[in-house]
């Protein structure tokens, strides 16, 4: 094992150990926050696979998050599926929609790809509203506490919720690290750096990009399904454009193309809003100023900047 | 062995300045007696903390601003009257961004960080539905002021209550007799194509059919729509009444284009004021509404037979006879809804006093005390009108008001009975464990 690999495993393993341990020491409020952050960080990690490593900027990832959320929720409310089946259904729906979107949207690139993904997400949002008889439209619906039991564990219980969120976070971590360290991941980075050169070297760029979109969508859908299960609510606002912008913001803040960046960015943004809202009603102004400063002084994000200055081995 | 006290040779005699200081301090302390003496009977002087989930940003900001003012006014009044169980009321506000995700986070913050006794104040339905599961899990009594049917429908949980404002189902069905008897029986409905609009579509259609009327056409407008002209040709020619509820900033365009479409030959029109809350009814472009009818939860304009309670409420909140801020006549209130905050806080006060509420361990007793309430008489605590609370469904029922636009003002033409708003129970929350 190379020195860099050892450092990487130590760092990422250490972060997971720290996340696991924190549940025993955090006060109730931050305990709940961290559970939420870990689930949303998985969403950001899915986004990072596509944006940070493949160089495809999507503005429609809320579609995949919502596919997981509604796939899980509707499987329960309309078909009476059990928790495990509903969770799997949500993830499958996200992967399926990811594949469909990829087939169509990857015919475009650059700004056109952004617009096409945005339009798909908007179509998804309006579809949820259109089928209001089943989805309850913009109001959404509640997943009853009795239905939120997985492997005999009540997911509305704070400890179980935290552990489930931690498991989702571990899955996304391992998946991202595996992809990044694999031959496949190196090709994605090659596509990001110079798509023409990757193609000239004989790689089927279209196929790689399609798999990247599906992987990214799957991880986003897993996060969406888990979010609905853990917090008991399925709503159309999670399919709105705002929730397509969030993962972009989290990844940019944390550091695009770093495995830890999405977690750091999600936590940073969460507490930036939470703490500044305690100081002033004009908290969005504070958040805006901080984000502008970060963009100016750490354009590669927090971990991107660390990698540039100190930890060049950071994956 | 004890130390003997020695008196310094100098400084033992008070100077005139010292005496004046002492008198001033004593006077100041005496002046504050009324402030603290009224809480002296309480076992603790710790405030009762009410977590106020306020829409400061997002689509609900206009409502949030007035909900905030009304809540502050109600809390000030309650504190002037001695607080709750001898303890002062403290409002802890957090912006939920009119977003269900942030709403749930704010509820968690109330329960686990601010250590609030209850959560309160939410208006928009999706924020209520997104937040209520967390309130139930955290066993935080969650008093919403939403007018959504979600509470009484049984979708939520025993910790969520709506004792200060009626729900959309009862509001809509109570309108049907007036519409059928006075405006016409052939109705075309225009509504936004999302859950709030669908509630109107479903409840009013059933209610007007029960009155012998019919809905000729349902015209659902997508929420992203900015121009409405293309929808108007769908209105059947034999329509006698247009029922409209268009929430959102496009309402001015909607009214203007509807006026251009019909000209002076229009059918009768009936709408829900939700579209025009915080909007001056005299705004340019709204002239077409003259002679049309509106549902109002509470009449925005002070009427000729205004009750003393309404006058008191306006004075305390800072609203003039036209429903605008006394400090800025252009700052129109959300008068049809905001009374709900005032009344809900008074229900909380009555519930806590009835339960002998001392702290979070008494939250279950508070829920049971509110569930036991029935009649809420017309009073300063309930200035909108008398109400009946249904402890099983956690929903209050009350009078509804129908006003007509006359010379740019909304004049009251009909008040429904409370019984007009009743419908069969759809849930019994009291069977759920606390």
Automatic annotation (TrEMBL), chain A:
Lineage, highest ranks first:
Bacteria, Pseudomonadati, Pseudomonadota, Alphaproteobacteria, Rhodobacterales
Name of this protein: Amino acid/amide ABC transporter membrane protein 2, HAAT family
**CDD domains registered for this protein in UniProt:** TM_PBP1_LivM_like
Q: Which UniProt keywords apply?
A: Cell membrane, Membrane, Transmembrane, Transmembrane helix
Membrane topology for this entry? Multi-pass membrane protein
- Keyword Calcium appears in the UniProt entry: no
Transmembrane annotation, as ranges: 51-72, 84-105, 111-131, 162-180, 210-236, 248-273, 279-303
Q: Where in the cell is it found?
A: Cell membrane
Q: Does the keyword Membrane apply?
A: yes
Highest taxon in the source lineage: Bacteria
Automatic annotation (TrEMBL), chain B:
Span of domain Leucine-binding protein: 47-408
Which keywords fit this entry according to its UniProt record?
A: Amino-acid transport, Signal, Transport
At the top level of its lineage, which domain of life is listed? Bacteria
Which Gene3D superfamilies is this protein grouped with? 3.40.50.2300
One short Pfam family name for this protein? Peripla_BP_6
- What InterPro entries does the annotation carry? BCAA_transport, Leu-bd, Peripla_BP_I, TAT_signal, TAT_signal_bac_arc
Family (UniProt): Belongs to the leucine-binding protein family.
- NCBIfam families listed in its UniProt record: TAT_signal_seq (TIGR01409)
Q: What is this protein called?
A: Amino acid/amide ABC transporter substrate-binding protein, HAAT family
Which taxonomic lineage does the organism of this UniProt entry have? Bacteria, Pseudomonadati, Pseudomonadota, Alphaproteobacteria, Rhodobacterales
């Amino acid at each position: 094992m190379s020195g860099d690999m050892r450092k990487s495993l130590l760092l990422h393993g250490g972060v997971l150990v720290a996340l696991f341990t924190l549940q025993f020491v955090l006060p109730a409020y931050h305990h709940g926050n961290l559970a939420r952050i870990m689930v949303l960080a998985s969403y950001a990690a899915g986004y990072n696979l596509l944006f940070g490593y493949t160089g495809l900027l999507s503005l429609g990832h809320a579609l995949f998050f919502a596919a997981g959320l509604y796939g899980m929720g509707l499987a329960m409310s309309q078909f009476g599926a059990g928790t495990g089946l509903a969770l799997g259904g949500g993830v499958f729906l996200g992967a399926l929609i990811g594949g469909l979107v990829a087939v169509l949207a990857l015919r475009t690139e650059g700004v056109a790809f952004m617009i096409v993904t945005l339009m798909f997400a908007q179509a998804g949002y309006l579809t949820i509203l259109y089928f209001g008889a089943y989805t309850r439209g913009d109001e959404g619906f509640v997943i009853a506490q009795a239905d939120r039991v997985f492997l005999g564990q009540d997911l509305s219980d704070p400890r179980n919720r935290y552990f489930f969120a931690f498991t989702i976070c571990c899955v996304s971590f391992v998946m991202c690290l595996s992809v990044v360290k694999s031959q496949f991941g190196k090709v994605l980075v090659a596509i990001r750096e110079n798509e023409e050169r990757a193609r000239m070297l004989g790689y089927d760029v279209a196929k790689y990009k399609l798999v990247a979109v599906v992987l990214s969508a799957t991880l986003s859908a897993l996060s969406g399904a888990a979010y609905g299960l853990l917090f008991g609510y399925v709503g159309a606002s999670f399919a709105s454009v705002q929730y397509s912008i969030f993962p972009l913001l989290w990844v940019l803040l944390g550091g695009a193309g770093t495995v830890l960046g999405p977690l750091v960015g999600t936590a940073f943004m969460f507490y930036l809003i939470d703490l500044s809202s305690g100081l002033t009603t004009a908290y969005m102004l504070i958040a805006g100023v901080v984000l502008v400063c970060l963009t100016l002084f750490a354009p590669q994000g927090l971990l991107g900047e660390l990698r540039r200055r100190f930890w060049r081995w950071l994956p | 062995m004890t130390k003997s006290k020695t008196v310094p040779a100098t400084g033992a005699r008070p100077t005139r300045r010292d005496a004046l200081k002492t008198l001033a301090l004593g006077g100041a302390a005496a002046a504050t007696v009324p402030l603290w003496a009224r809480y002296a009977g309480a076992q603790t002087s710790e405030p009762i903390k009410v977590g106020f989930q306020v829409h400061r940003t997002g689509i609900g900001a206009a409502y949030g601003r007035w909900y905030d003012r009304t809540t502050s006014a109600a809390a000030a009044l309650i504190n002037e009257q001695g607080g709750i169980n001898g303890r002062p009321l403290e409002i802890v506000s957090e912006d939920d961004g009119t977003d269900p995700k942030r709403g749930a986070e704010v509820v968690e913050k109330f329960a686990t960080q601010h250590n609030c006794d209850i959560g309160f104040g939410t208006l928009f339905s999706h924020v209520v539905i997104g937040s209520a599961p967390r309130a139930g899990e955290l066993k935080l009594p969650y008093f919403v002021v939403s007018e959504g049917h979600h509470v009484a429908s049984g979708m939520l949980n025993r910790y969520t209550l709506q004792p200060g404002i009626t729900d959309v189902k009862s509001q809509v069905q109570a309108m049907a007799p007036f519409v059928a008897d006075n405006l016409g029986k052939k109705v075309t409905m225009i509504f936004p194509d999302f859950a709030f609009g669908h509630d109107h579509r479903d409840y009013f259609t059933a209610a007007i059919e029960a009155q012998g009327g019919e809905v000729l056409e349902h015209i659902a407008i997508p929420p992203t729509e900015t121009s409405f002209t293309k929808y108007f040709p769908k209105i059947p020619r034999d329509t006698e009444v247009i029922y409209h509820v268009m929430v959102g900033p496009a309402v001015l365009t909607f009214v203007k284009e509807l006026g251009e479409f019909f000209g002076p030959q229009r059918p009768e029109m009936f709408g829900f004021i939700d579209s025009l809350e915080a909007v001056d009814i005299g705004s340019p472009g709204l002239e077409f509404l003259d002679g049309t009818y509106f549902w109002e939860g509470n009449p925005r304009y002070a009427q000729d037979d205004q009750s003393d309670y309404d006058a008191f409420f306006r004075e305390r909140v800072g609203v003039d006879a036209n429903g605008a801020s006394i400090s800025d006549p252009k700052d129109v209130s959300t008068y049809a809804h905001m009374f709900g905050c005032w009344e809900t806080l008074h229900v909380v006060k009555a519930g806590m006093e009835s339960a002998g509420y001392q702290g979070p361990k008494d939250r279950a007793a508070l829920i049971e005390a509110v569930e036991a309430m029935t009649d809420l008489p017309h009073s300063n605590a309930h200035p909108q009108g008398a109400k009946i609370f249904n402890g099983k469904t956690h929903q209050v029922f009350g009078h509804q008001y129908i006003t007509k636009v006359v010379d740019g003002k909304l004049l009251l033409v009909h008040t429904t009975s409370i019984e007009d708003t009743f419908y069969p129970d759809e849930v019994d929350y009291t069977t759920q464990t606390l």
